[in-house]
Inverse folding.
């Protein structure tokens, strides 16, 4: 009985710590809508997100303050969503330009998205701090991921 009580409160403690960790990190989560998307919808959504990222990067150089942070937030969301939009069932679907090599090298593929995500987080922090040099450097990091990935994984 005593042991059971202890076990329960220990579990509750673990749950509390988990909740606190999430709150502190303010983690951006994968868009829940992706879970119920068909393969065709995922291809459309990732192509739209790619185009959006291109447009954001083109205009973000001229932004500062809250506008720059909002631009970085959109990049952060897209980079967070991408791995979930490249599930194996989307291989060869519709007019996709995603190469089959993606699924044979998924860790290497998603590592480039992770680099983009880190860049977008650094971009947001730099925007919040008003650090123009760091902001520019972060945008360069993000921009570098586009070609790095397309060369290997986009036909
Ligand atoms: C880790 C890999 C990866 C990264 C990083 C990446 N892309 Fe892509 N991108 C792809 C793949 C794969 C496709 C093909 C998607 C498809 O057709 O299903 C694509 C497609 C595109 C397209 C065409 C969309 C369409 O309508 O067909 C554009 C534009 C694009 N990417 C822009 C970018 C920009 C800008 C960046 C950098 C900010 C970027 N991508 C970063 C993998 C990547």
């Amino acid at each position: 009985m005593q042991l059971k009580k202890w076990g329960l409160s220990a579990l509750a403690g673990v749950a509390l710590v988990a909740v606190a960790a999430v709150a502190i990190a303010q983690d951006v989560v994968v868009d829940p809508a992706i879970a119920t998307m068909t393969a065709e919808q995922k291809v459309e959504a990732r192509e739209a997100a790619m185009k959006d990222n291109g447009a954001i990067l083109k205009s973000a150089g001229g932004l500062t303050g809250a506008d720059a942070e909002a631009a970085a937030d959109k990049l952060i969301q897209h980079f967070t969503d991408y791995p979930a939009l490249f599930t194996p069932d989307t291989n060869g679907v519709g007019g996709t330009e995603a190469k089959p090599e993606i699924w044979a090298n998924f860790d290497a593929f998603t590592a480039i998205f992770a680099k983009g995500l880190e860049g977008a987080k650094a971009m947001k922090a730099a925007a919040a701090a008003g650090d123009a040099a760091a902001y520019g450097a972060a945008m360069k990091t993000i921009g570098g991921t586009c070609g790095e990935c397309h060369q290997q994984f986009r036909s």
